[in-house]
Every structure is written in structure tokens, then in C-alpha cells.
Amino acid sequence: MKEAIEAHLRQVEDFVPADATALEAFRVAYLGKKGHVTGYFTAFKSVPNEEKKEFGQWVNSLKQAVEAKIDAYREQFSAAPQRTGEDTTRPGVAFQPGAFHPITLVRNEIVRILERMGFAVAEGPEMEDDWHNFSALNFPPDHPARDMQDTFFLAQNPDWALRTHTSSIQVRAMAQQQPPIRVIAPGRVFRNEAISSRSHCVFHQVEGLYIDRNVSFADLKQTLLEFAQAFFGEQTQIRLRPSYFPFTEPSAEVDIWWGLENEVDYRMTKGTGWLEIMGCGMVDPAVLAASGIDPEVYSGFAFGMGIERIAMQRFQIPDIRAFYENDSRFLRAFQGAL
Ligand code: PHE
Fold it and tell me: What is the pTM of this model?
């Protein structure tokens, strides 16, 4: 009996399992219902009393050796069960390089051009109170101009809203600095509008504000032309149409020439060939006064442009919704653009 157990012990010690299946077969062969160790324990009954102690010790040491072997390999196999037998020559999964979102690319380009012209970036919160989004910008309470901007008010407190434009940052800049002020404010804005190919309820603007002595409408026009030609190319034409904003007087809408060569051009420009990209005007004296700047001494201009519209023109994208669908085939198209 002793020899048989010792032979098993040597087998156990020499055993090297190839994989989890081999280890399990080993476990069953020794510890299973019909396994060797189980067999020895059954045989224990018929061992003479004086040999029981010694016999018990042999069987126990065999059992412990089997368990130690199983413990030594079990973790290794369960940690990487699929590693064995895998085809290690198979090519790996290709790494997908990321790309900047087209909105980010265009925003960065706009900011770069305006920074070169002397503007500095300013920031403000996306959730604004009535003062910064409306009142300080000369929107009187209950004035119909507030309806121009379909506002998302906060249910908990209707004095707060998601900003409808980046003009709220003008108010913050004027409260913080004395003229000369030359700031731009890129940011996300929100309007409760029906989503279509031309408009979305979330979009982006870049605001510009310049306040100093003797700032004139001619300065505004030249700044915008300079910007348009730097961004769209030297031949770019702009046109200004009279418009209305509560916070500027006079006000204008700025169009750039897009062209009328195909269906998309007609859709984008409502058949005119001109694409509206921003609003602008001379800062209303009431707005300067509300922010503690003396309108007798200072004047200024402001403009606000939609980044999506500009990106659509730049990349010939016919539908604004493409920016928010996160279709990786669309996003990949901008790798290395701009
Ligand atoms: N805030 C205006 C809008 O969102 C744009 C604008 C900015 C107009 C600055 C004039 C001056 O429509």
C-alpha cells in the first residue's frame, strides 16, 4: 500500500497541466468520487488498527500534494483561460486615431484670427440669470424682443435660463473691465427651436465686443471684412443688411457670398446665394450705461456669429444635424482638416 501511495505522490509532484482541462481531469482522477485519494480513504477501514495512524498520514500528504498542485495552477488558468491555443500571429485590432470635431476646428480658427486682431478670449456660464442674458442688454421686461429668442427657462427658477446667446458675456466683460475692451467669447448657446436642416436647439456662437473712444460703424465693417477674408479667402464678399437687436443701434445682419450653383446652395441660402453668418451693431448707449461705462465718452461695436453656419459653408455640409449625431464616419472626414 505504501509503495502505491508513494508512486502516486511522485506522479502528483511531476504533473504539469497543459491547460485548465488537464488540471480538472487531474483533480477528478485524485479527488473525484472514484479518484485515488477517495479510494485510499475507503480502504482505510480495512487497514489494521496499528497501521491506521501511519496510513492516514500518507494518504493525507498525498491529498495535500494534490490540492497544492491544483491551487498552484488554478489562478494562472482562470486569469487567462483564453490565452492558450490563441493564434498569436493574428494582427491586432487597429488603433483608431481621434480627430477634432469640425465645430472645434472652426472655433479655433475663428479665435485665432480674432486674437491676431487684438481680441482676447472671455468666458461665461451656460446658465444665466435674466440680467446677463436680457435686462442688461436692453431687453425690457415683457418686451416682444424676448420672444425672438425662444428660451429654455429653468423649471425650478424662471429667473434663470440656458443662455440664448453669447452676448451675456459682453455684460460680464463690461462689468469687469474699463475701456478699452476688446474681447471675444466662444460658447455654446441654447434655443427652444424646432430642429431642421438649418437650425438646432443647441449651437455655438462667437461674440465680439470692442469698446473705446471714437469707435465707429466703419471700424465694425472693416473688422468684419478683414475677418471674413482671413477666414474664407481674400476674394470673399460680405454684405450688411439693416436689422434689429435690442442691445445694438444701428444693427445689421452680415451675409457672406456662398454661391448658387446647386440644390444645396439654394437650400442653404433660401435661393439668394447669400448665407447669413452673424448679427452686429453699435453697442446701444443704454447697454453701456447699464454696465457703468459712460456713453458720452465711449462707444463700441459688437458682433455675434454662429459657428455651425460658418462650418457648414466651409465644409459644404448641407445639414446642421450632422454635427450632433456623432457618426464616426462623418467625424473622421475632418481628420487633419484646417
Ligand atoms: N446675440 C445676437 C444673436 O444671438 C447676435 C448679436 C451679437 C447681434 C452682437 C449684435 C451684436 O442673435
Answer: 0.71
Ligand 1 close to Cβ of residue 302 (< 6 A): yes
Atom of ligand 1 lying closest to residue 279 CA: 8
Distance 303 CA to ligand 1 centre (A): 6
Architecture in CATH of 102-332: 2-Layer Sandwich (3.30)
- Atom 9 (ligand 1) nearest CA: 303
Beta bridge partners of 5: none
DSSP state letter for 275: E
Measured CA to CA, the distance from residue 152 to residue 309 in angstroms comes to 22
| Residue 183 pLDDT greater than 90, yes or no | yes
Q: Could you tell me the three cell numbers for 260? A: 448658387
Task: Give yes or no for residue 248 CB within 6 A of ligand 1.
Answer: yes
pLDDT at site 93: 84
Q: CB 167: neighbour CB atoms within 10 A?
A: 29
Q: Is the Cα torsion angle 121, 122, 128, 133 positive or negative in sign?
A: negative
User: Which atom of ligand 1 lies nearest, measured to the CA of 278?
Assistant: 5
